[in-house]
Description:
The protein has helices at residues 13-24, 47-52, 65-70, 131-142, 154-165, 186-198, 245-249, 288-302, 311-319, 324-330, 359-369, 371-378; strands at 4-9, 29-35, 74-77, 81-85, 90-93, 98-100, 103-106, 110-112, 125-127, 146-150, 169-174, 201-205, 209-213, 220-223, 228-230, 233-236, 240-242, 258-260, 271-273, 278-280, 283-284. It has three domains: 4-111 and 240-309, FAD/NAD(P)-binding domain; 125-236, FAD/NAD(P)-binding domain (3-Layer(bba) Sandwich), CATH 3.50.50; 319-378, no CATH class. Strand 11, helix 6 (186-198) and strand 12 form a beta-alpha-beta unit. Helix 1 (13-24) runs parallel beside helix 8 and helix 8 (288-302) crosses helix 9 (311-319). Helices cover 30% and strands 22% of the residues. The strands form six sheets. A five-stranded parallel beta sheet has the order 3-2-1-7-19, with no helix packed on it. The chain has a five-stranded parallel beta sheet with strand order 9-16-10-11-12. The protein has a three-stranded antiparallel beta sheet with strand order 4-5-6. The structure holds flavin-adenine dinucleotide (FAD). Residues 9-15, 34-37, 44-45, 47-48, 80-81, 107-110, 128-129, 155, 243, 246, 275-276, 286-288, 291, 321-322, 325-326 line the site of flavin-adenine dinucleotide. Flavin-adenine dinucleotide is lined by residues 9-15, 34-37, 44-45, 47-48, 80-81, 107-110, 128-129, 155, 243, 246, 275-276, 286-288, 291, 321-322, 325-326.
Amino acid sequence: MSKQQLVIIGNGMAPGRLLEHLFDAQGAYDVTIFNAEPRVNYDRIMLSPVLSGEKSFDDIVIHDDAWYETHGITLHRGQKVTQIDRAAKTVTSEGGITAAYDKLVIATGSQPFIIPVPGHTLPGVLAYRDLDDVDAMKLAAAQGGRAVVIGGGLLGLEAAAGLKAQGMEVTVLHLMPTLLERQLDPTAGYLLQKELEGRGIEVRCGANTKAILGEDKVEAVELEDGTVIEAALVVMAVGIRPSTALATDAGLDVGRGIVTDAAMRTSDPDILSVGECVEVDGRVYGLVAPLYQMARVAAATLTDTAAAFCPCRDANQAEGHRHQPVFRRRFRRWPGPRGRGPARCRPRHLSPRDPAGQPRHRRRAARRCGRRRLVQRIAEIG
Ligand SMILES: Cc1cc2nc3c(=O)[nH]c(=O)nc-3n(C[C@H](O)[C@H](O)[C@H](O)COP(=O)(O)OP(=O)(O)OC[C@H]3O[C@@H](n4cnc5c(N)ncnc54)[C@H](O)[C@@H]3O)c2cc1C
């Protein structure tokens, strides 16, 4: 019996994990992947060590060329899918490649949000999402000068630390009065700021970006209060939006993300979706662990096995996972409270997207982790 055709759009961490489960279950599919990025599947979480120079791209590859070959996967690199024809059951890329599917998985992830201030399209204004962004930052860093990072969340602070490690002067602009306000209370945020400043990273909280200035490339950032900060590079780390345009154009149900049921099926039963692009039960997720749970469920659905994504328990725990690799990486010498180790200090309340991240939880989490040590260790980023 000939195998069914499985086409996957996007080659991020979620579909990579889906395929591992599918092959474990010996799912009978011929797999074709289209990826807008011109590369194999890699660990996006580890981009910061690549930026800081601690790791190379090869160190963070999840599936190398040999893996695709072993599993007989056709990987179209640098081929952004521009159309899904649900009637014909085909997808077509901007390079003109068309592939027929029996089952389709949309795993287009997210796009970084760029604040549409004047000058945001100038060369030298970057997001922080993929290897191309990291390469561009390193290239800019080689020229020296000042980098302005807009956004004092974890991603922004990781970018700031990486750029500092690359030898740039760095200013972090943060709209809110204190850093990491969703994770830390104001005292902890203030202490973190002081710690970062002690390490040579300038931090301006309550800073509202008015415009990015420059003729042919970025030259400065202007704040609402009239302050002008010279900048050779601007990195925006101010949030992400699920990539849903393709699904919308194909007439699938789309809300904040591509709407799926708990089995990861979209409004078209032959089309599944996994990853940051998904909205399930009214929620979208920006952390690897819930996406991995989606991947497991989608693989089960593709092999006609009953499974359901359960955002209530695993995914909530999982949402804290956003910090797990970061915290593990950054806090590896940290003994943790009562010597129980850093894993104890992975409070789920610290998810940047967790609507349940109420102040009471944050306070409790900050206490549990030992506020001062938390601040010190975060400041060791880079
Ligand atoms: C610097 C950084 C650090 C992070 N740290 C952590 C962390 O510590 N912990 C944590 O849990 N999470 C972290 N995250 C978030 C985590 O990396 C993401 O949640 C996860 O990678 C999302 O996986 P995904 O497969 O949904 O999408 P993505 O990894 O975004 O992959 C989507 C892929 O689809 C491709 N694509 C999009 N549209 C198309 C199209 N039309 N055709 C073909 N291909 C397309 C894109 O090019 C991309 O390669 C971090 C993210 C970044 C950027």
